[in-house]
Automatic annotation (TrEMBL):
It comes from Gluconacetobacter johannae. NCBIfam families: OxoTetrIsom. The lineage of its organism: Bacteria, Pseudomonadati, Pseudomonadota, Alphaproteobacteria, Acetobacterales. GO terms for biological process: glyoxylate metabolic process. Keywords: Isomerase, Pyruvate. The keyword Disulfide bond does not apply. The keyword Mitochondrion does not apply. Belongs to the hyi family. Gene3D superfamilies: Divalent-metal-dependent TIM barrel enzymes. Residues 21-255 form the Xylose isomerase-like TIM barrel domain. One of its GO terms (molecular function) is hydroxypyruvate isomerase activity. This is Hydroxypyruvate isomerase family protein.
Length: 265
């Protein structure tokens, strides 16, 4: 059965960020993920993980100037030096937090005519990140994101994410398969899971179309969670959704799936 990780960027927003670790543990989560840890010292986050017996499932490398609208650096020509520094920062945090999955965001490419150049930069940058991450035992994951939530994002299709993994050719570069984004952009989610499972390194879930709990909407999550088991997926499933109310009040959906505390190593 799936092992669920609370997403502390979207979940438990009724609490201050550092208090969300205890809230997640109190609700039975054994793993957590979030977008960015960099507003807090790594040692402070590590203490919250330790004190609440939580595993660190995933976080993102620095994305550039998020407040100004940037959404990653990996595919941006002319930003390679900044990208390399961002990977150094992320891996330093990962070493303290015990994290084995690092999401590296591609960035925005609103000019369709520039895609080939962006693609070449992207592959080169991900290859560099993979080399740096390998010695740390970290896997780089690439997420296709829908254009409704993030217009202009460079990577939008699951197969394109898999193609970048193949182009890099490193065994520690894999797909971050977000079921919510996949449904919005392409549909036929179960077929894509079956086809891409060999290169999937992380999974995330949210209801479609409103990104609330995975208990209503277009996707039949009980079926998809069973399919993940059938396909042998042994990693975390990140709960990257915005609760309709408080996180705890909306956790009824998870009851049939309680029991597996953490994924296989």
């Amino acid at each position: 059965m799936p092992a669920f990780a609370a997403n502390l960027t979207m979940n438990y927003v009724e609490c201050d960020f550092l208090d969300r670790f205890a809230a997640a543990a109190a609700d039975g989560f054994r793993g957590v993920e979030f977008l960015f840890p960099y507003a807090h010292p790594a040692s402070e986050i590590q203490a919250r993980l330790r004190d609440n017996d939580l595993a660190m499932a995933l976080f993102n490398a620095p994305p550039g100037d998020w407040a100004a609208g940037e959404r990653g650096l990996a595919a941006l020509p002319g930003r390679q030096d900044e990208f390399r520094r961002s990977i150094e920062t992320a891996l330093a945090y990962a070493a303290v937090l015990g994290n084995r999955r690092l999401h590296v965001m591609a960035g925005l490419c609103p000019d369709g005519d520039a895609r080939a150049r962006h693609h070449d930069v992207y592959v080169d940058n991900i290859a560099h990140a993979a080399r740096q991450a390998r010695d740390a035992g970290v896997t780089i994951v690439l997420e296709a994101i829908n254009t409704r939530d993030m217009p202009g994002y460079f990577l939008t299709r699951q197969e394109d994410a898999a193609a970048v993994c193949a182009a890099v050719g490193a065994d520690n570069v894999r797909v971050q398969f977000d079921l919510y984004h996949a449904q919005i952009m392409q549909g036929d989610v179960a077929t894509r899971l079956r086809a891409l499972m060999p290169v999937i390194g992380h999974v995330q879930a949210a209801g479609v179309p409103d990104r609330h709990e995975p208990d209503d909407g277009e996707l039949a999550y009980p079926y998809l969670f069973r399919l993940l088991d059938t396909l042998g997926y042994a990693g975390w499933v990140g709960c990257e959704y915005r609760p309709r109310g408080t996180m705890r009040a909306g956790l009824g959906w998870i009851e049939p799936w309680r029991g597996r505390s953490a994924p296989s190593p």
